[in-house]
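A quick word before the example. In earlier lectures we treated sequence and structure as two separate objects. From today on, think of them as two lines of the same record. Here is Transcriptional regulator written that way.
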Amino acid sequence: MYSVEQLEAFVATAETGSFSSAARSLNKAQSVVSQHVINLEIDCNTTLFDRSGRYPQLTQAGKKLLSHASVLLEQHQRLRYCAQHLDKPFISELTIGLDEGIPFQKLSSIVNKLEIDFPNTSLAIFTASSIDIVDMIDTDRAVTGIIFSELSLPSYIDYESIGSVKFDIYVASTHPLAQQQTSNLASLKLHRQLLMRSRNNKSSTFQLALSPNIWYADNYYVLLELTLQGNGWCLLPNHIANQYVKNGQLVLLPSEFKDIGWQASVDVIQHHRYSLEPMFKQFRHSLRQLLAP
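And the structure line, produced from the sequence above:
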């Protein structure tokens, strides 16, 4: 019967592309990794890698097994962490990473209700870009993140969608784009774009660079100020831009299209080792009301 070590060697080889790379990632000798894969092939009674080329390539059988093996290893990791922490004291600190582009007016009332059931809980809230918050979860600087959805998240992060936030393209009322009707998005390339980027220079999957001339910030309120000063056009959450549209400082990009904005989904994320803790589970469920009307 196959073992966890065999599956780890198999998945690592498939993901890294070679037995030597897999050995380095697992901190094992290459011969050990190779033997684990061979033993797995014997147990499965089939060849999982084509070794005729310079690098091993998954066979059809290997591709079929890979997804099942990856899921099993993720569940094994959860089981291992749970077993290791059965006798550990309850975690009483709630550390939240919040993307500033997400409305947070209801957050204090949600936290206040949580304190009734968990009165000894300490609280820390940090604001950052969504990409940076994923890194905060990874390094334990935050337990819960409230972010704009990303197309790809690490497998150890659990997530739940709690709603969406409407975004539109805005410019200052004095900006040249405010004085004309835009016929297509390609014309935006002629003007500077103001774009969200994380502190490690990564961009969100829905924050696309269109213009060759871009200024970056990791904070929507900094982008707002740059937009108000006429430095370029920017994709902003409506709730941040609305008051400046009302007082005439910002305008929604004049366009031939009726509606060029879109809804950005908002997710609550937690490292899976915390997801089943009662306090964090209750907090995650309470956050479903954060964006409710």
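Notice the following. The longest helix spans residues 60-84. We will return to this example when we discuss secondary structure assignment.
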